[in-house]
UniProtKB/TrEMBL annotation:
One of its GO terms (cellular component) is membrane. This is Fatty acid amide hydrolase. Residues 170-581 form the Amidase domain. One of its GO terms (molecular function) is N-(long-chain-acyl)ethanolamine deacylase activity. Keywords: Hydrolase. Belongs to the amidase family. GO terms for biological process: N-acylethanolamine metabolic process.
Amino acid sequence: MVNKRVMLPVAEVDVSAVKYEREVVKAPHVTGFTLKLFVWMLEARLIGSLIISVVKRKNRIPELLRHTVIPETPMFRPEFPPQEVEPVVMIMDEDSEPRARLETALGCLPPHDPRHRLNNTSRNSFLYWTIRDFAHAYRSKLITPSIVAEDIISAIGDSNNQIPPLPLLIAFDPEELRKEAAASTRRFEEGNPLSILDGIFVAIKDDIDCYPYPTKGATTWFHETRPVREDAVCVSRLRSCGVVFIGKANMHELGLGVTGNNPNYGTTRNPHSVDRYTGGSSSGPAALVASGLCSAALGTDGGGSIRIPSSLCGVVGLKTTYGRTTMQGTLCDAGTVEVVAPIAATVEDIMLVYAAMLGASRSDRICLKPSAPCLPYLSSSESLDALRSLRLGKYTEWFTDVYSTDISNKCEDVLNQLYDAYGCKTIEIVLPELQEMRVAHVVSIGSESACGLNPDYEDGKYSEFNHDTRTSLALFRSFSATDYVAAQRLRRRIMYYYMEVFKKVDVIVTPTTGMTAPLIPASSLKFGESNYEVAGYLMRFIIAANLLGLPAISVPVGHDSQGLPIGLQLIGRPWGEANILRLASAVEELCLPSRRRPSKFYDILKTA
């Protein structure tokens, strides 16, 4: 017999009586040969079922799904109420050409001063070169994309020869890079650059198609069953603007992990501390941007896979509203929690790449009814008034549930600075049923991932996955149809709570991660690592934006006592990218003095 739980209808829940429950993930930490043995036991029918059953029970998964009466109807994809247009924005036509949207985005930015980076003489702060810095250098005939390409090729070779190597890329072809850069150089010589992005170097995560490179999802074999014949739509839009693609960036295998560990191609190292993880699954994209090798990168985010590595590597990572950009041409194009979006060194670079790549699929326009995409009009005199009016929501007990108080203290300090500088008020909020939300997310993304991989799994390909991927799939394949439907019922409840909170605040603020970059165990390099406790800390504040499809952004705000980057996460209303970008720009400006140069950094523009 089990104790049946009966939940009140969500509208009847007394939020003021909710008590915060600290998250404790209970699962064995295994690595190296021990992980290999653990996977063997998991895949043995009887003992594996027993182990999975114990892990699920200790983490309350049956209790919250199978033993609970959830009165709400399922929400199988995010459903959003109509949203008001944000103030002081530039509205973009997603049916227009990417180059036209880029012009709109440029009009939103403050005037560009090319001397700003050169005149930064402070020993304690560090500035990245921006897309507009490169564009100015090209148009001033100081350098060419071909010159920059040669320096990037040299730097990538150097990164691979480091001890330990940084393995940033899975697929890299110097001749393809030279060819694309030469085409861009010719356009500048003829006086016909395609856009502000012409000659800008961008990396593509290995689960996004970028012809002629294969898409492996960081496996050793996936490209054999799924050949690439054209670019993903988002990549095609960037290519039409003149972007030069570096290659396919390293990642956690199939995106089923948040550290970036990958024995297949080597684990990408954090540019701030090479003995630590970058975070994942977009490990290569974040590390490439942080190390200065490219201005921006494209990643995917189904469970923090853009925001986690952006936070741990000290760069900016945007997760857009679900459906804002078509997923056509990506490995995760049939899920209900994933998006494709940019990582960049600065908020203005995020805005430029986002403007070029956005655009919902026709089916999502019918089903999701997205509001028109907007950007904050940062160059307007009214932008400051819009910033001052923003109300920030903070759930203090959740906000401070971190591995080190360095994180919560630094993020709290930024909120105080926002109030002092702009008058942005922080309002205390309560977000109930966080444990239910985490379970609903893991069941949703896990079931959808297992469904997509099942034909290959049944075909015997499971033995070619990494051991930590096989650990995850053993859990995911144990979820039933009733578990999945119950998770979607919980999705509707959680959506209600967040929409109620957004009646009182404009942006929800949290640390991006509950811990800074964890150490890479030496034993994990060959066989991998399964550490759900670390994953729990890294994903602590991440999940709502994925399960509910909300826009969110991670902005670097400083470092902990070990010099490791800390990120602040801003979560917005549905289709509310403009508000979080406006606030992110203000946060970035306030925190510039504390930004530090990574220990592994390639000053490409200066070298060129």
